[in-house]
């Protein structure tokens, strides 16, 4: 039999490699920004069109390339950053694999312009799908401009797989922020469709964080600063009272490289022990510096995961350092250095002064929304006219006679003045129905009720708005402001009314009737979070996300005690819904147990 194995042509090999390196426009952004940094740039511009799908261009003032290098850089495994295998264990550049440009050039239209400082003329190279189209001398400034157009033009499957512009832009902004946070001493510009999104001057770290996340961030930051033989930790954690309900602003950098590490995250969260409300996540910006030869960056193609030689020691130090700083800033209730002895390290705080002032702990006084809320504030929003309709479905689902009226559903409710509903563990409502019992999850049920109400008010465009006595000004980062602005009209339909948009704040003068003033910030923050999450397809509608987000944020939670009246209100509202049996997120809202089923429990 003849031989059948052959080497793949370069352009095919490059396309395959691109599958690993380039998942979406944001991957290209990351690689190009990193190349600019490695080239020693002091100012880096990122220009985007259509979420990077049409154009991603990075312009730097770095050292540029000779015309031979300009051609070489598109070859696979072509790099100036390492020469021998040992170099892998002592990396101080972002790149080293030498495959980013080769991969990108295989799947896009690429135009490179570059010039070194001492050269008269620069080089311009155009490549399409790994094929060099042209190479010319040009006159251009020092540095490099790399434009990547029509990403995935030759891989329709990949191109179709890209998400909406909102989602892809979010991914790009995430990468941009990570790089910008890792290098506060470099100026960065980001333009999207000719609008300026970021203009970051060269700064110190605190200024950089504030420039990205908005002025309100400044007061939240507690500085971290610790040095030992094996590790330096610098940066900031946000005070616990500013913890977020979603993971968001959590950044680890190791030797100036953004990394993901659930292990180190655990160490930080652990240091907040007891200071965080259940389920909230602290924000942090932590910069670890370790000797380059004690980490392995090579374990992940996009280099966001790394391996540490002495993970346990890092964990213990990180935890202790964060804990210590929180204590110094008077935000930790107890300073406790009890460490797991397995994690013990030659590390002491003995030299440090311990906070002597009585610790301040802020407790959220609004924990039980019903304590201070009036009936209007607890959101059972609409007078439900169609109340009885959906009880029928309950009948059907438990297979009893649908002719019966609602009153007969509950046992003897009029005659003996017993309760119709019972609350169990502040979580479920139990109600007796003719055929047996129904068990309702109060939080999920309320989500369903709110969801349908919001959807109705948003889409029917009949805003139920209440004017605020005093307009509320809320600070947001510039990206957040941009997002709010793009969904302004939908928010107005939902009952919000806006006064003024500035670069980092928005003034609100009216809110939906179902929202209380104290919840405005959280409801908007949650909404932005939810909008940032992956959205599966193009049929995606802001309305639906918005209604779901509001419903989730405003629904009564497990742990909330409900009065008899509130319980009944909720049950009635639920069964007036169009789809009472599932929550907006697809979970069952109630379960029934028929008499038969109950009998069977006792007959086995
Ligand atoms: P790597 O960054 O892993 O070396 P790349 O494919 O990203 O691989 O880049 C290949 C080479 O091209 C780099 O090693 C560098 O020498 C050169 N290069 C890429 N981008 C720039 C730039 N913006 N300025 C100067 N040189 C660059
Ligand atoms: Mg690179």
From TrEMBL:
<dbReference type="InterPro" id="IPR042120">
    <property type="entry name" value="MutL_C_dimsub"/>
</dbReference>
<dbReference type="InterPro" id="IPR013507">
    <property type="entry name" value="DNA_mismatch_S5_2-like"/>
</dbReference>
<dbReference type="InterPro" id="IPR014762">
    <property type="entry name" value="DNA_mismatch_repair_CS"/>
</dbReference>
<dbReference type="InterPro" id="IPR014790">
    <property type="entry name" value="MutL_C"/>
</dbReference>
<feature type="domain" description="MutL C-terminal dimerisation">
    <location>
        <begin position="420"/>
        <end position="562"/>
    </location>
</feature>
<dbReference type="Pfam" id="PF01119">
    <property type="entry name" value="DNA_mis_repair"/>
</dbReference>
<keyword id="KW-0234">DNA repair</keyword>
<keyword id="KW-0378">Hydrolase</keyword>
<dbReference type="GO" id="GO:0005524">
    <property type="term" value="F:ATP binding"/>
</dbReference>
<dbReference type="GO" id="GO:0140664">
    <property type="term" value="F:ATP-dependent DNA damage sensor activity"/>
</dbReference>
<dbReference type="GO" id="GO:0030983">
    <property type="term" value="F:mismatched DNA binding"/>
</dbReference>
<dbReference type="InterPro" id="IPR038973">
    <property type="entry name" value="MutL/Mlh/Pms-like"/>
</dbReference>
<dbReference type="InterPro" id="IPR036890">
    <property type="entry name" value="HATPase_C_sf"/>
</dbReference>
<dbReference type="InterPro" id="IPR037198">
    <property type="entry name" value="MutL_C_sf"/>
</dbReference>
<comment type="similarity">
    <text>Belongs to the DNA mismatch repair MutL/HexB family.</text>
</comment>
<dbReference type="InterPro" id="IPR002099">
    <property type="entry name" value="MutL/Mlh/PMS"/>
</dbReference>
<dbReference type="Pfam" id="PF13589">
    <property type="entry name" value="HATPase_c_3"/>
</dbReference>
<dbReference type="GO" id="GO:0032300">
    <property type="term" value="C:mismatch repair complex"/>
</dbReference>
<comment type="function">
    <text>This protein is involved in the repair of mismatches in DNA. It is required for dam-dependent methyl-directed DNA mismatch repair. May act as a 'molecular matchmaker', a protein that promotes the formation of a stable complex between two or more DNA-binding proteins in an ATP-dependent manner without itself being part of a final effector complex.</text>
</comment>
<dbReference type="GO" id="GO:0004519">
    <property type="term" value="F:endonuclease activity"/>
</dbReference>
<keyword id="KW-0255">Endonuclease</keyword>
<dbReference type="Pfam" id="PF08676">
    <property type="entry name" value="MutL_C"/>
</dbReference>
<keyword id="KW-0227">DNA damage</keyword>
<dbReference type="InterPro" id="IPR020667">
    <property type="entry name" value="DNA_mismatch_repair_MutL"/>
</dbReference>
<dbReference type="GO" id="GO:0016887">
    <property type="term" value="F:ATP hydrolysis activity"/>
</dbReference>
<keyword id="KW-0540">Nuclease</keyword>
<dbReference type="InterPro" id="IPR020568">
    <property type="entry name" value="Ribosomal_Su5_D2-typ_SF"/>
</dbReference>
<dbReference type="InterPro" id="IPR042121">
    <property type="entry name" value="MutL_C_regsub"/>
</dbReference>
<dbReference type="GO" id="GO:0006298">
    <property type="term" value="P:mismatch repair"/>
</dbReference>
<protein>
    <recommendedName>
        <fullName>DNA mismatch repair protein MutL</fullName>
    </recommendedName>
</protein>
<dbReference type="InterPro" id="IPR014721">
    <property type="entry name" value="Ribsml_uS5_D2-typ_fold_subgr"/>
</dbReference>
<feature type="domain" description="DNA mismatch repair protein S5">
    <location>
        <begin position="209"/>
        <end position="327"/>
    </location>
</feature>
């Amino acid at each position: 039999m003849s031989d059948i194995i052959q080497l793949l042509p370069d352009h095919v090999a490059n396309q395959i490699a691109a599958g690993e390196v380039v998942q979406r426009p944001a991957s290209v952004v990351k690689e190009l920004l990193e190349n600019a940094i490695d080239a020693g740039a002091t100012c880096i511009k990122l220009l985007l069109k259509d979420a990077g799908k049409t154009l991603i261009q990075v312009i730097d003032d770095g050292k540029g390339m000779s015309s031979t290098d300009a051609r070489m850089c598109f070859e696979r495994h072509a790099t100036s950053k390492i020469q021998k295998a040992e170099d892998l264990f002592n990396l101080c550049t972002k790149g080293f694999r030498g495959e980013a440009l080769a991969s990108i050039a295989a799947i896009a239209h690429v135009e490179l312009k570059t010039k070194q400082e001492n050269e008269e003329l620069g080089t311009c190279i155009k490549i399409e799908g790994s094929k060099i189209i042209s190479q010319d001398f040009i006159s251009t400034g020092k540095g490099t401009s790399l434009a990547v157009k029509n990403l995935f033009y030759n891989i329709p499957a990949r191109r179709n797989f890209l998400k909406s512009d909102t989602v892809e832009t979010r991914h790009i902004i995430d990468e941009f922020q990570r790089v910008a946070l890792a290098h506060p001493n470099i100026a960065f510009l980001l333009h999207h469709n000719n609008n300026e999104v970021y203009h970051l001057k060269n700064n110190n770290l605190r200024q950089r964080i504030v420039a990205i996340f908005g002025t309100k961030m400044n007061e939240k930051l507690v500085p971290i600063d610790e040095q030992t033989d094996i590790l330096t930790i610098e940066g900031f954690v946000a005070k616990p009272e500013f913890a977020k309900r979603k993971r968001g602003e959590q950044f680890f950098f190791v030797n100036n490289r953004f990394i993901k590490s659930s292990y180190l995250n655990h160490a930080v969260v652990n240091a907040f022990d007891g200071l965080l409300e259940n389920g909230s996540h602290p924000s942090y910006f932590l910069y670890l510096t370790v000797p380059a030869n004690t980490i392995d960056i090579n374990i992940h193609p996009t280099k966001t995961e790394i391996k540490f030689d002495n993970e346990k020691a890092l964990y213990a130090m990180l935890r202790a350092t964060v804990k210590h700083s929180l204590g110094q800033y008077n935000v930790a209730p107890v300073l406790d250095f009890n460490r797991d002895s397995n994690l013990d390290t030659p590390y002491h705080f003995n030299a440090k002064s311990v906070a002597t002032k009585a610790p301040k702990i802020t407790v959220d006084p609004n924990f039980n929304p019903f304590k201070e809320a009036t009936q209007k504030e607890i959101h059972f929003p609409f007078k439900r006219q169609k109340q009885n309709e959906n009880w029928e479905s309950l009948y059907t689902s438990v297979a009893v006679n649908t002719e019966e009226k609602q009153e007969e559903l509950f046992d003897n409710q009029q005659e003996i003045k017993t309760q119709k509903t019972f609350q169990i563990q502040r979580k479920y409502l139990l109600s007796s129905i003719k055929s047996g019992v129904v068990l309702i999850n109060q939080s999920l049920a309320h989500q369903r009720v709110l969801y349908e109400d919001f959807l109705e008010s948003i889409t029917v465009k009949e805003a139920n708005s209440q004017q605020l006595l005093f307009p509320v000004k809320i600070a947001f980062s510039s990206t957040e402001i941009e997002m709010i602005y793009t969904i302004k009209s939908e928010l107005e339909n939902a009952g919000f009314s806006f006064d003024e948009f500035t670069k980092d704040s928005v003034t609100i003068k009216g809110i939906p009737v179902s929202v209380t003033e104290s919840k405005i910030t959280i409801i908007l923050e949650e909404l932005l979070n939810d909008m940032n999450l992956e959205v599966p397809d193009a049929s995606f509608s802001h309305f639906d996300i918005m209604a779901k987000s509001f419903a989730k944020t405003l629904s009564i939670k497990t742990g909330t005690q409900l009065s008899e009246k509130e319980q009944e209100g909720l049950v009635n509202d639920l069964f007036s819904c169009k789809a009472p049996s599932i929550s907006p997120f697809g979970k069952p809202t109630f379960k029934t147990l028929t008499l038969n089923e109950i009998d069977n429990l006792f007959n086995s």
